Amino acid sequence: MKASRIVAIRATPVTVPLEAPLLHSNGAHWGRFVRTLVEVETDDGLVGLGEFGGGGESATAAVEGLIGYLKGHDPFRLEAMRFAICNPTASLYNNRTQIHAALEFACLDIMGQKLGVSVSELLGGRIRDEIPFASYLFFRYGDADGRHEVRTPEQLAAQARVLKASHGFTSHKLKGGVYPPRHELECYRALADAVGGDRLRYDPNSALSLGDAIEFGRAIEGLNNDYYEDPVWGMPQLSRLREFVRIPTATNTVVINFEQLAANVAQRAVDVILLDTTFWGGIRPCIKAAGICETFGLGVAVHSSGELGVQLATMLHMGAVVPNLSYAADAHYHHLLDDVIVGGPMRYRDGAIAVPEGPGLGVRLDRDKVRRYHELFLELGGYAYDRDPGRPGWYPLVPNARWADPAQRLVPDLGVKR
């Protein structure tokens, strides 16, 4: 079989609307996701797809500028590509981890298309055909009439019931770190009551002090928790927290590479590692990390960084081949109003999404939607992930004490150009 050679790399930023702005401990998703779609083309006419977060001229230039490194490269030579653009010492000056991830996605997509098999078959063969997901609940800004707002325990419980009825979720994650911990504790208890015996998880994105985390963790020990995700920042504090709270700890922030994973094996601060196909630099590093976790008895889950259908496909293929994936995956996906892939958004069935069956990643771009949402990006521009549009001038500390006021309803300026 004649080798393929890379001849072109293209990047297209897109903006896809969300049902409502989503709040988190560092700021917000301002009512939309901004993502960059990556296409790698070969000399035999194959086009592989990738995706990563953010977008704009600098992201496009960073991706397309790598053609000088990769023109003529065989997309099957993935380890060579990793060192060509992500040499670990050179990366101290050029951190290209997420760009490498998008290019790896695209090369795996090309390989699967060329061989006529899915990515999950390339990576060892799937052991599951669908991946269960958690509901991933956020505090949210509403519109002027209060629609879509989630600020109170009652609103959170209602939103959980809607998502459970619509998509069949039986695991539920609350993204916290927005309001004072005792208010969020009241909300979390209301969530538990609303979903009966379903599984739960809480993630305040490292916003809590150790004292607040101990108080919150002890208060929820009797609930049906999967794990306690990033309540405090850093392995030393997470290790200390485990002495006081009898819930497994989890992270997607302080263990996102192999050096940190090795440190966690030695220190055992975290029980469950959330693997993100972009944060770790691709699907293959995630599978490698999952194998290390299996060896040392660490749990594995799947992290979401705000995906459209291309990255969701990478999460599905990764989840399909990892034996020790024992938790429902995270996904922001159900908050999106649309997608850029042919056929529209993938469907949940009983809280799970089927792993795509086609060759490669099994998804293709809907060119009309890519054009529409690229134009929307040009119209609206980007937004600052680490700022809250409802609190101009605000920024968080770690640990934080600058909480939003749960008694105050806000309708923020989302930075839309007029």
From TrEMBL:
<dbReference type="InterPro" id="IPR034593">
    <property type="entry name" value="DgoD-like"/>
</dbReference>
<dbReference type="Pfam" id="PF02746">
    <property type="entry name" value="MR_MLE_N"/>
</dbReference>
<dbReference type="GO" id="GO:0008872">
    <property type="term" value="F:glucarate dehydratase activity"/>
</dbReference>
<dbReference type="InterPro" id="IPR036849">
    <property type="entry name" value="Enolase-like_C_sf"/>
</dbReference>
<comment type="pathway">
    <text>Carbohydrate acid metabolism; D-glucarate degradation; 2,5-dioxopentanoate from D-glucarate: step 1/2.</text>
</comment>
<protein>
    <recommendedName>
        <fullName>glucarate dehydratase</fullName>
        <ecNumber>4.2.1.40</ecNumber>
    </recommendedName>
</protein>
<dbReference type="Pfam" id="PF13378">
    <property type="entry name" value="MR_MLE_C"/>
</dbReference>
<dbReference type="InterPro" id="IPR029065">
    <property type="entry name" value="Enolase_C-like"/>
</dbReference>
<dbReference type="InterPro" id="IPR013342">
    <property type="entry name" value="Mandelate_racemase_C"/>
</dbReference>
<feature type="domain" description="Mandelate racemase/muconate lactonizing enzyme C-terminal">
    <location>
        <begin position="153"/>
        <end position="248"/>
    </location>
</feature>
<dbReference type="InterPro" id="IPR029017">
    <property type="entry name" value="Enolase-like_N"/>
</dbReference>
<dbReference type="InterPro" id="IPR013341">
    <property type="entry name" value="Mandelate_racemase_N_dom"/>
</dbReference>
